[in-house]
Specification:
By secondary structure, this protein is α/β, with parallel strands linked by helices. The protein has 4 helices and 5 strands.
Length: about 140
């Protein structure tokens, strides 16, 4: 089975996580700086992972606490659309409410200082998004 890639989209950084081949576990993979150039993001994504091993992408969809779309939701949807168009790999949007907050708390509990947390929070959020997706898929 091919792997699934989880993405925490942000206007400055994009967190990346990848599943195992059984699509049961998620692992943080890294961050990509986002400068509004989708082609550059794809190139950097190829450095982190082998796209030939990817079944599909899961991009976190930031919704309000009430489940409504936000301005950031539109950015994430646009990114997802472009990612699918350029790679030819299916992209699915998945509710990411509170994942960044949970990622911050998880890193804080590990006694990581603020500077280190800032470097890792996006990939941990991507890990959480992807793990939630995988857990829902198993139900």
């Amino acid at each position: 089975m091919k792997k699934i890639v989880g993405i925490d989209f942000g206007l400055r950084r994009i967190g990346i996580a990848i599943s195992d081949e059984q699509q049961k576990l998620s692992f943080p993979k890294g961050n990509i700086n986002f400068n509004k150039d989708i082609d550059k993001v794809i190139l950097e994504l190829k450095v982190l992972i082998n796209l030939d091993d990817v079944e599909h992408f899961v991009v976190g969809l930031p919704l309000s606490q009430r489940g409504n779309e936000t301005p950031m939701s539109l950015n994430a949807k646009e990114f997802a659309k472009n990612l699918e168009k350029i790679t030819g790999i299916k992209v699915e949007l998945f509710d990411e409410r509170l994942t960044s907050k949970f990622a911050h708390n998880l890193l804080k509990e590990s006694n990581m200082n603020r500077k280190k947390r800032a470097k890792h929070v996006d990939q941990v959020a991507a890990y959480i998004i992807l793990q939630n997706f995988l857990d829902c898929k198993l139900l």
